[in-house]
Amino acid sequence: MTAPLSIRDFSLFHGFLDRSAQESMVADLRAALEVAPLVQPVTPRGRPMSVRMSAAGRFGWITDRKGYRYSETHPDGQPWPPIPDSVRAVWDAVVPDARPPECCLINWYGEGARMGLHQDRDEADFDQPVVSISLGDDGLFRMGNVERGGKTESVWLRSGDVVVMGGAARLRHHGVDRIRFGSSTLLPKGGRINLTLRVVS
Ligand SMILES: O=C(O)CCC(=O)C(=O)O
Ligand SMILES: [Fe+2]
């Protein structure tokens, strides 16, 4: 077990979405992924990432040999589908004073997938929060510091959990060390979906 994080401006709403809300959000995401299929991105150095990614909204975050960036089109050239209303409603509920989200990044973690410690810093306005929604298998989320290195704290994020990273937590390093593959029955083939809602411009 891990205790909730004691980090300023990091809020965890455990069980924010009940099972039926999670199921309808997954159905909405499936429809979005028909328009913008998941891709396995590569880092600018050419290393394949273990998560698969897509996005909804005006912008999607992409990475390839040309670098990390936001793009108004999927790598296949099509615009991204709109952010589902069910997802947008979470943003409006937890950060009602923020600007409207312009990107919903969709990360899919299969067995063995992880995400190294990083900062979310490709957005123009760091006063705007990032909101994350977890669906499916448990993920071990690690929160570090604004500077590289130092102490970190970890928490298991479960299906239906919502996290807000704003203010002093907005530029902290964070990542996902591992998932507990098969720990949830939400996604028929297992795995974890994480959505991050961001203001980009
Ligand atoms: O999967 C998560 O919980 C975090 C994802 C994340 O940090 C990101 O997409 O930038
Ligand atoms: Fe991130």
UniProtKB/TrEMBL annotation:
InterPro entries cross-referenced by the UniProt entry: Alkb (IPR004574), AlkB-like (IPR027450), AlkB-like_sf (IPR037151), Oxoglu/Fe-dep_dioxygenase_dom (IPR005123)
Positions with a binding annotation for 2-oxoglutarate: N107, W108, Y109, R192, I193, N194, L195, T196, L197, R198
Binding positions for substrate per the UniProt entry: W61, Y68, R69, Y70, D122, R148
Fe2OG dioxygenase domain: residues covered: 100-201
Cofactors named for this entry: Fe(2+)
Upper classification of the organism: Bacteria, Pseudomonadati, Pseudomonadota, Alphaproteobacteria, Rhodobacterales
GO molecular function: broad specificity oxidative DNA demethylase activity; ferrous iron binding; oxidative RNA demethylase activity
UniProt entry keywords in alphabetical sequence: Dioxygenase, Iron, Metal-binding, Oxidoreductase
GO annotation, cellular component aspect: cytoplasm
GO biological processes: oxidative RNA demethylation
Residues the record lists as binding Fe cation: H118, D120, H174
Designated name of the protein: Alkylated DNA repair protein
Domain of life: Bacteria
Cofactor: how bound: Binds 1 Fe(2+) ion per subunit.
